[in-house]
Specification:
Layout (H helix, E strand, L loop, with lengths): L2 E4 L2 E4 L2 E4 L8 E6 L16 H18 L3 E4 L9 H11 L3 E8 L9 E6 L4 H18 L3 E7 L3 H5 L4 E8 L3 H7 L2 H19 L31 E6 L16 H18 L4 E4 L9 H10 L4 E5 L11 E6 L6 H22 L2 E7 L3 H4 L5 E5 L6 H7 L2 H19 L4
Parallel strand pairs: 4-5, 4-6, 6-9, 7-8, 10-11, 10-12, 12-15, 13-14
Antiparallel strand pairs: 1-2, 2-3, 7-9, 13-15
Length: 418
């Protein structure tokens, strides 16, 4: 038998036999989470989730292209497409599958593991895609298997018209895992696990893939742990409303009391984890807390700054803007000036990331500000009664970003590196 190699096929007795690449004709949309002004979670030494997701997605793109797939990414540089932009791109392209790449984070730095998410009310195909990705990631990374999980609140899973899954391959908040995610060989391993999971989902046989040649890595030298920038500070955070007080309600039922608490909790976690601060909350669950009780908690907190999180509302559904308030205490101009600076720094950060109408800073006579002995602000990031904003506020990655940028504003106020 005479035989000559021809491209991807062979010639047998003069007849070309072509072996199709395993994903020929499949349209795969890959969404690297976060990006640009939204870094996502940040590791203990500063690695941004947005960078790790992009590197993973670019490696996955190359593998998919080699497998014969048609591939489109929501971003190929460090930019931030909005969540609607991402799903609109995938939907208009009529992708066959939507793969959203993320890394996980928690305030407990000992936690690590792999999980994959799919839309609660989606198809069995989405669930199968999530399971196949999860299987391969667990096999490759050998981290604790946190399983596949249904989610109803994530925009990219809910609004994509094709089967979709969101991977959380590991925890960037874990110091050891963060160090591994800085190694491009490890990133390539994660991308390859994604690729094999997609092949498994389509019932395809993988073409041989040469793993990257490991590059010698310098042995890390132990470094002294730097002091966290706000380790000598105490903050009191007020999540407005709660319990029987719903605050404002969005067009599809989202209550501002819930968003207030979610963002306040993110802010607390950032202050504790990245700032090293002590934090007192006026509430940490969905309970009613009277104005009198809130004032008592603030007074007893020993805090040097107060931050009240209050999402706005209006009878006009088109209204949506960002504004931060402070109390003008004529009897204490020093407190007023400090409060005004804190409001300015937080407002600047929120406007930078939310891209909403900037209403600047203003004064407020809210009881919690007027009765506080320490400088404080009332932060209104946006309006839950605006339909577009309500949809964004249902996405936990968006509310995480709001809490994170309030924290960055506080760091700016203290002139420290966050």
């Amino acid at each position: 038998m005479k035989r000559w190699i021809v491209g991807l096929g062979v010639v047998v007795f003069g007849v070309a036999i072509v072996f199709a690449a395993p994903l020929t004709g499949k349209k795969i949309f890959v969404d690297p989470g976060h990006g640009g002004t939204d870094p996502g979670a940040i590791g203990p030494t500063g690695l941004k989730e947005s960078i790790a997701t992009l590197q993973t997605s670019l490696k996955l793109k190359d593998l998919l292209l080699n497998g014969g797939a048609l591939v489109k990414l929501s971003r190929e540089t460090d930019t931030y497409p909005t969540l609607p932009d991402r799903t609109n791109m995938a939907n208009s392209w009529e992708a066959d599958r939507f793969i959203c790449v993320h890394y996980n984070s928690t305030s407990d730095r000992t936690v690590n593991g792999t999980e994959t998410l799919y839309y609660t009310y989606g198809s069995e195909t989405s669930k199968d895609l999530a399971q196949k990705l999860q299987n391969r990631l667990v096999e490759a990374l050998k981290l604790p298997n946190r399983g596949i999980k249904p989610r109803s609140d994530l925009w990219v899973l809910k609004e994509s018209k094709m089967p979709a899954a969101l991977t959380e391959s590991s925890f960037i908040s874990n110091p050891y895992e963060e160090s591994r995610l800085k190694d491009i060989n490890y990133i390539s391993k994660i991308a390859l696990a994604h690729y094999y999971g997609i092949l498994d989902h389509f019932g395809a046989v993988p073409e041989p893939v040469n793993p990257p040649t490991p590059q010698p890595q310098p042995q890390p030298q132990p470094q002294p742990t730097p002091a966290l920038p706000l380790s000598d500070k105490i903050f009191v955070i007020d999540a407005a409303n709660g319990g029987t007080s719903n605050g404002y309600t969005g067009p599809t039922g989202l209550k501002s009391k819930d968003v207030n608490l979610r963002v306040a909790t993110v802010l607390k976690n950032n202050l504790v984890e990245y700032g090293g601060a002590k934090v007192v909350m006026t509430r940490d669950s969905d309970v009613s807390v009277s104005s009198t009780k809130r004032n008592q908690i603030v007074a007893a907190s020993g805090a040097e700054r107060l931050i009240s999180v209050v999402f706005g509302g209006s009878s006009n559904p088109d209204t949506n803007y960002t504004k931060t308030y402070y109390y003008n205490d004529s009897a204490n101009p020093t407190k007023t000036n400090i409060s005004k600076d804190l409001a300015t720094k937080i407002q600047q950060r929120l406007v930078q990331t939310l891209n909403l109408t900037n209403k600047g800073i203003g004064t407020s006579t809210a009881s919690i500000l007027a009765n506080a002995q320490m400088p404080g602000v009332k932060v209104t990031p946006s309006f839950v009664t605006n339909p577009y904003e309500e949809a964004r506020l249902k996405d936990s990655s968006y509310t995480w970003k709001i809490g994170r940028y309030i924290y960055l504003g506080i760091a700016d106020h203290y002139q420290v590196n966050p």
